[in-house]
Design brief:
Chorismate Mutase Domain, subunit A, alpha+beta, 13 helices, 6-stranded mixed sheet, Rossmann fold
């Protein structure tokens, strides 16, 4: 495994989560072998002090002795674990532990000691929660996300095998007495459920691990497929289902899950997805508002629109904006960017800036590039499913020099006569408007 990591990834510092148990001890030992291969693997161990167990000093002393022997820097952050009101000590501890590990992580990789038995237990825990393929697929040896690259090199080794390796190498480890407490779900599964299953079903561990692998493969393939399709339906914070076959349950469900989980970074709860699917079908209250995280999600026409809590900001009547400049007003970021494709809703700016006008008569008619007839602004908003609460943030774009109307927000540009693209291409711009999460 060491050679695999060494040859496939850039040499960077490694932070090891060290509890002092067998799993994290072997992970630390493995990291020292990587350091022998290349001194670029600077090491740091992080031992979190939970403050919930009288044996905390014993664990700390063991980790200090181990790191001194292996010549590895040790960081010992104290966790602030708060539980109750539906939050279990396990969940609070796990969240705090990851926070501390990431805060004290070197600018490189995070290595954790999860092993094969953890995978089996995770499968049953996920099954109990009613998780989908991703939850059932378990942990990955390598995962790259917003936290950086996380390594779990021991996932193919059982607990007994890890303990045997440590003893053969001349090291020891400590045992956490809390691993015997049946009040914790994982311990109940490990000590009560799995022994019965193993006694009745020979090879159950291998079957579970094989199921995890299949769930991982199928989830990854579905994710790849839906991420490509999502481009046709999701734009900014809006899911447009006007061209979606609402009778295709599987596609609608996966698209909603992608919209919530990957696009809005929300918890894609099954019941929430089912409720939004009903909302799309028009089989529940179309005026319903679903509050999830920092977002309100509602239906407007044939779209689902997520809007975060708009900052109660007094909107100025006029704001000047220069090319490649961005400005934040309320919960929106406005940017004036150069167009490199004349098929976009571009407009011609005849000066060094434009003016965004937020207070105007919505009854006035505009001739947009995308329309053959003049339409009043109110109807244009309706045609483009701009919900009423967002319309105050959709400005008219004026030329700062000539006071000509150039565009209506980021919806479409105004039709211009005698526009020579060959001579003016370097003056073509678009206004982008993105809602930001406050």
């Amino acid at each position: 495994m060491a050679n695999k990591i060494y040859s496939s990834y850039e040499v960077k510092p490694i932070t090891i989560g060290l509890s002092g148990g067998a799993d994290s001890t072997l992970a630390l030992i493995l990291a020292t072998y990587l350091r022998k291969l290349d001194n670029g693997y600077k090491l740091r161990a992080v031992h979190c002090i939970h403050g919930l167990d009288a044996d905390d000093p014993i664990w700390l002393a063991h980790c200090q002795k181990l790191c001194e022997r292996l010549q590895v820097e040790l960081i010992t952050p104290k966790l602030n674990i708060v539980y109750g009101n539906g939050i279990s000590p396990e969940d609070s501890s796990r969240k705090e532990r990851y926070r501390a590990l990431l805060e004290n992580k070197l600018d490189g990789y995070l290595m954790l000691g999860h092993q094969q038995d953890d995978q089996v237990e995770n499968f049953l825990l996920a099954l109990k929660r009613g998780a989908g393929p991703y939850g059932l697929s378990g942990m990955r040896e390598l995962i790259l996300d917003e936290r950086g690259l996380i390594l779990r090199p021991l996932l193919n080794l059982s607990k007994k095998y890890i303990e045997a390796i440590i003893q053969a190498l001349g090291f020891d480890f400590v045992f956490d007495i809390s691993n015997e407490y049946l009040k914790f779900e994982r311990n109940f599964i490990r000590l009560k459920v799995l022994p019965l299953m193993r006694e009745r079903f020979v090879g159950i561990d291998k079957s579970i691990l094989r199921t995890q692998q299949l769930c991982s493969i199928e989830h990854d393939l579905a994710k790849r497929y839906i991420s490509l399709m999502a481009k046709d339906y999701i734009n900014n914070l809006c899911l447009d289902f006007s061209k979606l076959d609402l009778n295709d349950n599987s596609l609608c469900f996966m698209l909603l899950k992608y919209y919530l989980q990957d696009h809005l970074k929300l918890n894609a709860d099954y019941h929430l997805i089912a409720s939004l699917y009903e909302l799309m079908q028009g089989s529940n209250d179309k005026k319903a508002i679903y509050k999830i995280g920092n977002y309100d999600i509602r239906r407007y026409g044939s779209k689902l629109i997520a809007s975060n809590a708009l900052i109660n900001t007094q909107i100025q009547e006029k704001v000047n904006l220069k090319p490649n400049q961005s400005i934040i007003i309320g919960s929106f970021c406005y940017s004036l960017v150069t167009c490199d494709d004349v098929k976009q809703s571009f407009f011609l700016a005849d000066g060094d800036s434009v003016d965004l006008i937020f207070k105007y008569n919505r009854a006035q008619k505009l001739k947009l590039k995308t329309r053959s007839m003049r339409r009043d602004i109110k109807n244009i908003f309706r045609e483009h499913s701009i919900e009423p609460m967002l319309r105050d943030y959709m400005p008219l774009v004026y030329s700062h020099n000539s006071n000509r109307i150039l565009a209506l927000a980021n919806i479409a540009a105004i039709e211009e006569d005698n526009l020579d693209l060959n001579n003016t291409k370097h003056l073509l711009y678009c206004l982008t408007i993105k809602q930001i999460n406050n």
